[in-house]
Specification:
The protein has eleven helices and 15 strands. With about 325 residues, the protein is of the alpha/beta class. The protein folds into two domains: about 220 residues, Alpha-Beta Complex (DHBP synthase); about 90 residues, Rossmann fold, CATH 3.40.50. The strands form two sheets. The chain has an eleven-stranded mixed beta sheet with strand order 1-8-2-3-7-4-6-5-9-10-11, with helices on both faces. A four-stranded parallel beta sheet has the order 12-15-13-14. Bound molecules: threonylcarbamoyladenylate and magnesium ion.
């Protein structure tokens, strides 16, 4: 069931469902999430079941922003045992927004959502519909909402309500309520920073650059290492469409099309550089701007995949740090 989030009654209905332990498809500025009350173990189990996600892969808990400048504090205190100063600085700088912080978990709360880890991922999303829903749910006693991306495990994340319905056909034809808040403005998942050790560690790149994070918290943000917590979004193969994704630079792509000539059936193309593949090749032009590319990336992968091709050839993104998030998702889709 798809309901327009423009209708306040739809937000109320969705909040009511969360309070009752049902799942809700929720738009955020990054991607759509499959949401449940983070403190309701039975409801959170339903998320794992619907996604086919292993129970030890932790979910992110989403918090209402509240009405004051650090109105998320109530939620943070409910779930986190300790908030280091650098983590507090990151919250101040980027919340509400596309940033998830991994913090030491308060014992006895949200254990199922946290996949059994002694830490918990917290994020205060900026999307007005997500915030309206979180606020309405909080008014019904929901402290936080666990929500992974609303796709089946290992697949491409959804950036529209229709994508969510596509991922969970049976549930969507049944009684799953999906709030339609339009296309997600960021388009790739939040940046994740581990704050469980004395220094911040980047677990998953997103649209915030390391330089932005470092400027806000006044400390170097390290690359992930062996001791870093596992994160399913950091599995090598993820975000995979049915077709195989292959990354090549412009020269390699041109050479490959030259070899194929008119026999390029079964191949789709997503590239920035001018290219003249055979006419039957489904293609989309990759924007020159990283934010624009991120916004459309998952929708384009779905669209090209839906043409039934065997291979999606993608031009390697440029070097700049602003492309880190897009490059990361493409490398995983290609793995
Ligand atoms: O933008 C986003 O973050 C979206 C929207 C819906 O908010 N959510 C999202 O959730 O991407 P998901 O489940 O697809 O990815 C969450 C990532 C996973 O890689 C998970 O392992 C990691 O966050 N994560 C969550 N809690 C963690 C924890 N306690 N320790 C380590 N990693 C954690
Ligand atoms: Mg995901």
């Amino acid at each position: 069931m798809l309901l327009s989030a423009k209708d306040p009654a739809a937000i109320d209905a969705a909040a009511q469902r969360l309070a009752e332990g049902s799942l809700v498809g929720m738009p955020t500025e990054t991607v759509y999430g499959l949401a449940a009350d983070a403190d309701n173990a039975t409801a959170v189990h339903r998320i794992f079941e619907a996604k086919g996600r292993p129970a030890d892969h932790p979910l992110i808990v989403h918090l209402a922003a509240g009405s004051s400048a650090s109105g998320w504090r109530h939620g943070v205190d409910h779930y986190a045992r300790d908030v280091p100063a650098f983590a507090a600085a990151l919250m101040q700088a980027f919340w509400p927004g596309p940033l998830t912080l991994i913090l030491p978990r308060r014992e006895g709360v949200a254990a199922v959502a946290a996949g059994g880890q002694d830490s918990v991922g917290l994020r205060c999303p900026a999307h007005p519909v997500a915030q309206a829903l979180l606020k309405a749910a909080a008014a019904r006693g929901v402290n936080g909402v666990a929500a992974p991306s609303a796709n089946r495990f290992g697949r491409v994340s959804p950036t529209t309500a229709a994508h969510v319905a596509e991922e969970f056909t049976a549930l969507a034809e049944g009684d799953l309520l999906i709030l339609d808040g339009g296309a997600c403005p960021v388009g790739i998942e939040s940046t994740i920073v581990d704050c469980t050790r004395p220094h911040p560690v980047l677990l998953r790149p997103g649209m915030l650059t390391t330089a932005q994070l470092e400027a806000a918290c006044g400390q170097p943000v390290r690359e992930r290492d062996e001791a870093a917590p596992r994160a399913s979004g950091t599995l090598e193969s993820h975000y995979a469409p049915r077709a195989k994704v292959r990354l090549m630079d412009a020269r390699q792509l041109r050479a490959a099309f030259q070899v194929l000539g008119h026999d390029a059936k079964g191949i789709a193309l997503y590239a920035r550089s001018a290219m003249e593949p055979a006419r039957q090749v489904p293609r989309r032009r990759m924007p020159d701007d990283a934010a624009a590319a991120a916004r459309e990336l998952f929708a384009v992968l779905r669209e090209l995949d839906a043409t039934g091709v065997r291979l999606i050839w993608v031009e390697t993104p440029p070097e700049g740090v602003e492309w880190d998030g897009v490059r990361d998702r493409l490398e995983r889709a290609a793995a």
